[in-house]
Amino acid sequence: MVQLQQPLLFFLFFLILHLYATGVISANFTIVNKCNYTVWPASTLSGSGFVLKPGETSTITIPAKWDGFVWGRTLCTTDSTTGGFSCITGDCGTGKVKCEGRGSPPATLAKFRLNGPNNQDFYDISILDGYNIPMEVVPSTGKCNNTSCPVDLNTGCPTKLKVTQNGTVVACKSSCWGNCNETSADVNVKIFKTACPQAYILTNDVKTFSCSHTDYQVVFCPASGNVRLENTLISFTLKKEIKYFKNQFN
């Protein structure tokens, strides 16, 4: 009986290796909310979307070959008359908690391409089209790099780029809307680049990381709340740039 089982075990072992090598096995994304406010995570995976209160986590299964985004929506409400659901930031326009397609900018994005060239996963944090909340991507294997924008960029957002709700800045628009490079970027973009050096901000300065066959955590407010922007910008030169920028745009 044991001899009959051994070939089966070998078959299953090599089958699993084959599935990993060919990118057939799906990935688990654990979404973690470390913010001190509620976040409604969403993704470009059809029918995704749910609520996470502070301190809560939830795991979603992502197809083996997937190219898409994960982001967080904030300040979401359901209209008591129409029943329509909407969010001040990151809204996906479905009128429901579940999303179809991308959310509206400005919103911080975690971008993924699973099982791409050479069966590698590729991922980055993008604020190319604006920012709403801090985010981090953490591969489950210790052999791959985390990437994040852990800073609260809303605190230093110029007046003309602010998205406000009841007097509070809840998001910051991009001043170049996904079309900036090193030469065309204004001071605002350079400030964000200094505050979040791992994030994808400039079109010609892609900050993409890679890993092979693993699960991921997507963390909102990874620094246990919000790291204020002004606490990260300490160089004298950068402070002069901030002052110049505010004089130009505020």
Automatic annotation (TrEMBL):
UniProt KW Disulfide bond keyword: yes
Upper taxonomic lineage: Eukaryota, Viridiplantae, Streptophyta, Embryophyta, Tracheophyta
Coiled-coil positions: none
Tree of life domain: Eukaryota
InterPro entries in alphabetical order: Osmotin/thaumatin-like_sf, Thaumatin, Thaumatin_CS
Species of provenance: Medicago truncatula (Barrel medic)
SUPFAM superfamilies: Osmotin, thaumatin-like protein
Alphabetically ordered keywords of this record: Disulfide bond, Signal
SMART domains: THN (SM00205)
Homology family: Belongs to the thaumatin family.
Signal sequence bounds: 1-26
Disulphide-bridged cysteine pairs: 35-221, 76-87, 92-99, 144-211, 149-196, 157-172
Protein name according to UniProt: Putative thaumatin
